[in-house]
Write a structure and sequence with these properties.
CATH topology of the largest domain: Alkaline Phosphatase, subunit A
Number of domains: 2
Length: 488
């Protein structure tokens, strides 16, 4: 029997509809290939082609480094100075501040909870006069380079939903992350490294770590080629980049070329975007065999630069190392770097582990900003520092047992800071009330922050959409206003 006729006889209903629906898709792919003057593979060419509509206008930022602090840093102990907290220390929280509010199950009803003063004193810094706690001396020293937003608020009261909401616009997993939307809308700038890289760390000996879920940097319903690529904290940053024993680079190249031809046949036949992703990933892995060793070779970094990031700068897996890698990645064309550090969940360790968290993150964060500024990169690189929410101004635990002081989750007001990339430096935007409990002026919702980040990248957040299950989805859902008061 003729194998071609047999194949046609065995054609399934799904394949029939699949083939019939891909004609336009193949034509579109062919048009993309014509744009590629470098002779890259079809899938890789499509990867590098930005969405035709973006940017909508001149961008202030070309790239983002998000220093995400998993576990929710305590705004009342770090950034949001409220003298009245000291006055009310040990007294019950006023009822009018908590009426009708929902807290985590660990707090339940906040009635009768005792107010807790900041663990360390605050002082004003720089010409801006920004209030910063003694916990953060290095960040205090760059206060005039950054913008504090002290009126952030969210809807989530638990960590995973809160982080997912900030990074994807939904409390439920399944939506594309910020970096995925960036790659989809703007394309990628390098063929040698992924357009979206994620690195994670946690302070040594902490008891309050958070799980790093893959959907924090996932592509959701976008094609998976837009997902973030996680660099590991030990050993090779990416597994399986090295050739197996006995396989030369020439043999690997030939194998990939043959495999690409087979995959491209299937791509033309079925038009499945995941096949394009597979081809592009193989090609990227081959290029990364050269680019990643060069990326991680710190031998040419001057000691003065390493000193900016602190003692952990050369120790793989630390927040300091990841901050340094973030700068090296964006220098090489990576558009979005997500540096995530866990351990801020101080339910009973404000007077112990909070010191460790600040020691491990303060200098590297400030050092990154200074390093970018010295290299002329801060102007078009947006740096963001913050967590998923704040922490309660009242205590969790026994106020008489100082070694066990803690604070619970608090979504109603918290602080983040940003620098570079079109952000107005040396300002504080928004205010919480006199107990840092609720937003009092210029509220900034999570969707407002997302709309602002996209605006700085030259993207109208209402126009960056993807149709899925019959609806046009976007990062900001159906909400979000650009916070013009923070724009330079």
């Amino acid at each position: 029997m003729n194998p071609l006729l047999e194949h046609q006889d065995l054609l399934t209903r799904r394949q029939l509809f699949g083939r019939g629906a891909t004609g336009l898709g193949v034509a579109a792919l062919a048009s993309l290939l014509k744009q590629d003057a470098g002779g890259a593979s079809p899938a890789h060419s499509a990867l590098r082609t930005p969405h035709s509509a973006f940017p909508n206008f001149a961008a202030k930022a070309k790239r983002i480094i998000y220093l995400f602090q998993n576990g929710a840093p305590t705004h009342v102990d770090l950034w949001d100075y409220k003298p009245r907290l000291a006055e009310l220390h040990g007294k019950p929280v006023p009822e009018e501040y908590i009426a009708g509010k929902r807290f985590s199950t660990m707090t339940g009803k906040a009635d009768g909870k005792l107010m807790l003063q900041p663990v360390e004193p605050f002082a004003q810094h720089g010409q801006s006069g920004a209030w910063v706690s003694r916990f953060m001396p290095f960040t205090a020293a760059i206060a005039d380079k950054i913008c504090f937003i002290k009126s952030m608020h969210t809807e989530a009261v638990n960590h995973a939903p809160g982080i997912t909401f900030l990074l994807t616009g939904s409390e439920m997993p399944g939506r594309p992350s910020l970096g995925a939307w960036m790659s989809y809308g703007l394309g990628v700038e390098t063929q040698e490294l992924p357009g979206y890289v994620v690195m994670t760390s946690i302070s040594k000996d902490t008891t309050c770590g958070q799980i790093f879920y893959d959907f924090y940097w996932g592509s959701g319903f976008l094609p998976t080629r837009y997902s973030g690529v996680k660099f590991r904290g030990t050993g090779e940053p990416v597994l399986y980049l090295s050739n197996p024993d006995g396989m030369s680079a020439q043999v690997r190249r030939g194998l990939l070329d043959d495999l690409a031809q087979l995959n491209e046949l299937k791509l033309r036949e079925f038009g499945d975007p995941e096949i394009a992703t597979r081809i592009a990933q193989y090609e990227m892995a081959y290029r990364m065999q050269t680019s990643v060793p060069e990326l991680t070779d710190l031998s040419k970094e001057p000691q003065s630069t390493l000193d900016l990031y602190g003692p952990g700068a050369k120790q793989q897996g630390t927040f300091a190392y990841n901050c340094l890698m973030a700068r090296r990645l964006i220098e090489r064309g990576v558009r979005c770097v997500q540096v995530m550090h866990a351990g801020w969940d101080q339910h009973n360790s404000l007077t112990t582990e909070l010191y460790n968290q600040c020691r491990d993150t303060d200098q590297p964060s400030a050092g990154l900003v200074l390093d970018l500024a010295q290299r002329g990169l801060l102007e078009d690189t947006l740096v963001i520092w913050g967590g998923e929410f704040g922490r309660t101004p009242f205590i969790q635990g026994d106020i008489k047992e100082r070694k066990r002081w803690g604070r619970d989750h608090h979504p109603y007001a918290f602080t983040i800071w940003m620098a570079g990339g079109g952000i107005k430096p040396g300002i504080t935007y928004g205010e919480s009330d006199d107990l840092a409990m609720n937003v009092a002026k210029d509220p900034v919702h999570v969707h407002d922050l997302q709309a602002t980040l996209l605006h700085l990248l030259g993207i109208d957040h209402e126009r960056l959409t993807f149709k899925f299950q019959g609806r046009n989805f976007r990062l900001t859902d159906i909400h979000g206003q650009v916070v013009k008061g923070v724009l330079a």
